[in-house]
Amino acid sequence: MVAPMEVDGPCGWDFVDWVGPDASACIFRSLDDPADIVRAAAVSRSWRRFVVGNEFSKSLCLRICPEIANFTSAEEVNRSPQPQPIARAAESSHGVELKARERDYRIYSYLSGALASTKPSMDCILQCIGASSTDNFPEESIENTLMPNDRVKNRASYWSSGGQDDPDAPESLTYRLNSDICIIDEIRLQPFKAYFQNGYPIYSSKAVRFRMGHSKLPHGSESFVTVEDENLMAIADDNYVWSYTSPEFPMLQENVLQSFKLPRPVLCIGGVVKVELLGRVQKQEADDRYYICVCHAQVRGRSLSPVFMVDTSDPAGYSVLKYLPEAKILRAEDAMLDDGRESLEWHSLVARYRRMRHLAIMNVLLGPVELMDEDDLGGVSDEDPFV
């Protein structure tokens, strides 16, 4: 149902009034630039009520990234504790709804701008969660796919699956991203060329597919690649909620970094990406079995944290979007202080994000860090104040 236009005064008739609410709503919903919707809301009070009441910004977010539908609600988290309201007569349901619509407009108008941003993509992988199999652990571990080259200190650097007689047997590599909420547009993979074997075989897969979502495991129980079983419990599909599954892409049997552009930008809610390697093309001469080997992987996109965070604790698999507007202007020294005047939820989210950023910085300086709990993960960006 379209919310009607309200005039501001006796001379308040304007274009929207003459066109009518239904036709006006069709026009507004055709806008694909978030800034145009914000400009329309600034024309007059009546236009703002029309824009806010019909949730045009949220509709635009859903058109850009349908994964937004996985959010059961959106909440605004303020830095300072909110004062308790003065006792008064119960507020009407209409007034409560108007406040909720205004809050949602603030959140989704900013989110739509973030989704449509033209900022350059970067590699968002923070850590490996696990591989479906490994031939020789730890020499051929998934951790090697985080290295930019296929040789490190004159030694081959790659992940290798276990051998299979069936050429259709799949494999998978699961990664944790640098934020719980990222916009992803491309995945890059490089098959490994075994330069130390006869004929220099390239162990690519036939095709690839990608899943994105979040873990259902309790915080702290999602361990990482440190033992020979390659964390098989943590990578089981039953432990994840996948909010997006890509189409299949053919992979070339070439030792180059191959780009797989997604049909549209995808909102990864929960910060987990699973790379599915479908089918095998190369046998190893030594044992006449099929293998898949990858020497490098990238998940390209942008983190939306710390302004946006996600609560994925709902057992049904739904998520709550958290909007921290004051994180946009947070100074570096503020980020490092433990300020007792902050609200508990703000402090919890900022502390979690600060640990995420520190882990990302340590990975850059020292290489991938092992044995970190899920609470110690998260986003990093070039403009992040949490340095």
Automatic annotation (TrEMBL):
F-box domain segment(s): 26-63
Any Pfam family the entry gives: F-box-like
Gene: LOC102712617
Organism this protein belongs to: Oryza brachyantha (malo sina)
Stated name of the protein: F-box domain-containing protein
